[in-house]
């Protein structure tokens, strides 16, 4: 019994070693450099194909897989343990390169899913899967040549699809930019195209963050003129608008699943813009009242709230400053 178990272990270990060598050969043939065809890359590649050590290449499949299922598959089938904090390493050092080359497709089940969503999944591109399934056969060389010749077309189609999914935005200046789909970006579009004309007319949009590209629109020199130097985008609000006539800097957070201006965030923004020569205004923007209610208890005093489905109004968390009757509630003046 012990000898049989030992023989099985050796057989599996040998199959694992062979699969890694073959995966490295395939990735090399597809043009990946050593760093993108190292053990981690090869194991990720095998996981995306759900190819266990003793399965043949013609059994490769194309499941939708997130980073955690990839790590789990590697652990279960190739006896390599990756800690949860290595997910970013796999995403940045392997998956991003596979995506850029056209080997993978991101979120084919829901293209509008935000890039940073915890539900993000990846899938082997169909023509790449067809090629991989013939590895080791007499068709491999011919099919590889054909695939490499068509690769630029595949990449072009994927890029065209990504561009079509992007969210077009027109800045107050008339300049047009585009944001990646999903996440808070549709709300960012409403902030720029609906909030700004109503509440910051004549203002200059200095910064627009993007789920995918933090510095999608960034007026660096303008910021420097205001005494502000931005070194890193991580702490930036989603939209920054300057009103020269009033010397105001309006900092807007687009709130969908997280991120209103609570007490902590207000202090962070004050520190980030501590050298500003303009006064700071803090705004939390929401799509509708329902989403606002979920964050109501977190909103900081001395901030503002804008709700996109009631675009002409603001909610002021500012206490006594705005206390007083509105025009329609003033006493009727006698003749």
List keywords for this structure.
335 residues; alpha+beta; Arc Repressor Mutant, subunit A; Trna Endonuclease, Chain: A, domain 1; two-stranded antiparallel sheet; 10 helices; 11 strands
List strands and helices in order, with pairings.
Blueprint: H1 2-29, H2 39-48, H3 67-78, H4 87-101, E1 104-106, E2 122-124, H5 126-132, H6 140-165, E3 167-170, E4 176-179, H7 185-199, E5 204-208, E6 217-218, H8 220-225, E7 239-243, E8 248-255, H9 263-272, E9 279-286, H10 289-293, E10 303-307, E11 314-317
Helix pairs in contact: 1-2, 2-3, 5-6
Write a brief structural summary.
This protein is of the alpha+beta class and 335 residues long. The chain has helices at residues 2-29, 39-48, 67-78, 87-101, 126-132, 140-165, 185-199, 220-225, 263-272, 289-293; strands at 104-106, 122-124, 167-170, 176-179, 204-208, 217-218, 239-243, 248-255, 279-286, 303-307, 314-317.
Q: How would you portray this structure in words?
A:
The structure is a single chain. The chain is of the alpha+beta class. The chain folds into two domains: 2-165, Arc Repressor Mutant, subunit A (Orthogonal Bundle), CATH 1.10.10; 168-322, Trna Endonuclease, Chain: A, domain 1. It has ten helices and eleven strands. The strands form three sheets. Strands 6-5-7-8-9-10-11 form a seven-stranded mixed sheet, with helices on both faces. A hairpin with a 5-residue loop joins strand 3 and strand 4 (176-179). Helix 1 crosses helix 2 and helix 2 crosses helix 3. The longest helix is centred in the N-terminal third of the chain and has 28 residues, at 2-29. It is elongated. The mean pLDDT is 84.
């Amino acid at each position: 019994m012990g000898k049989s178990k030992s023989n099985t272990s050796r057989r599996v270990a040998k199959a694992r070693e062979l699969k890694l060598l073959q995966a490295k050969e395939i990735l090399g043939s597809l043009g990946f450099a050593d760093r993108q065809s190292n053990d981690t890359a090869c194991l990720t590649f095998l996981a995306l194909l759900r190819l266990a050590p003793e399965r043949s290449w013609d059994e490769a499949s194309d499941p939708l897989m997130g980073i955690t299922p990839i790590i789990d598959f590697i652990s279960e089938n190739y006896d390599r343990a990756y800690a949860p904090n290595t997910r970013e390493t796999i995403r940045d050092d392997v998956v991003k390169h596979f995506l850029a080359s056209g080997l993978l497709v991101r979120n084919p089940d829901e293209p509008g899913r935000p890039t940073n969503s915890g539900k993000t999944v990846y899938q082997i591109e169909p023509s790449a899967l067809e090629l991989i399934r013939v590895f080791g056969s007499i068709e491999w060389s011919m099919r590889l040549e054909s695939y490499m010749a068509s690769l630029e077309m595949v990449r072009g189609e994927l890029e065209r699809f990504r561009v079509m999914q992007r969210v077009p935005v027109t800045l107050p200046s008339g300049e047009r930019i585009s944001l990646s789909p999903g996440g808070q970006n549709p709300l960012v579009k409403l902030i720029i195209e609906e909030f700004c004309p109503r509440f910051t007319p004549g203002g200059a949009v200095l910064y627009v963050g993007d789920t995918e590209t933090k510095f999608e629109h960034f007026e660096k020199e303008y910021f420097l003129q205001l005494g502000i130097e931005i070194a890193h985008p991580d702490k930036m609000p989603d939209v920054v608008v300057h009103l020269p006539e009033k010397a105001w800097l309006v900092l807007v957070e687009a709130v969908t699943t997280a991120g209103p201006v609570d007490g902590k965030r207000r202090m962070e923004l004050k520190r980030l813009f501590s050298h500003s020569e303009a006064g700071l205004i803090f705004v939390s923007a929401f799509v509708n009242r329902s989403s606002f209610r979920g964050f109501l208890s977190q909103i900081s005093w001395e901030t503002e709230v804008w709700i996109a489905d009631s675009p002409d109004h603001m909610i002021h968390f500012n206490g006594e400053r705005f206390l007083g009757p509105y025009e329609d509630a003033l006493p009727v003046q006698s003749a």
